[in-house]
Amino acid sequence: MKSEILQKLARYCAYQERCVWEIQVKLESFSVLPEEQAAYLDWLEDNNYLNQERFAKLFVRSKFNQKSWGRNKIKFELTRLQIKDTLIQSALEELKELPYEATLESILIDKFNQVKDVNDWTKKQKCYQYAMRKGFESDLISLYIQQFR
Description:
It is found in: Cytoplasm. This protein is an all-alpha fold. The chain is 72% helix and 0% strand. It has helices spanning 3-15, 20-29, 34-46, 52-67, 71-80, 85-92, 100-114, 120-134, 138-145. The longest helix is centred in the middle third of the chain and has 16 residues, at 52-67. 18% of the residues are buried.
């Protein structure tokens, strides 16, 4: 293992939480062979620069708090980052401590008031589609949209 690559990886991980997939992409940019990547990943994990569980929980909290993403979109993105399903499920438990339904309701109300359409049905459809793109569950969205007049 090259110490200069270790230093770069340590800085890369210290700056922001990273997942294994991001580190592998970074290692490829350093032209590190796939057989050698495991040693770098092990070193990062042993020195607490890399922790998949910590990354997943932080990802869930930050995407919900900063971007108001729902469970479905968060789960999709974590899967795209090659996080294991068991870690995804435990990380999604973080949403139970957060105001999930209140955030959905707030998003829907804001969107309903923003849509400039005379027809209430069209406004509700646009709100529904918006919340679906944000990753919220369809049954939960329908429950809140029914309350709009």
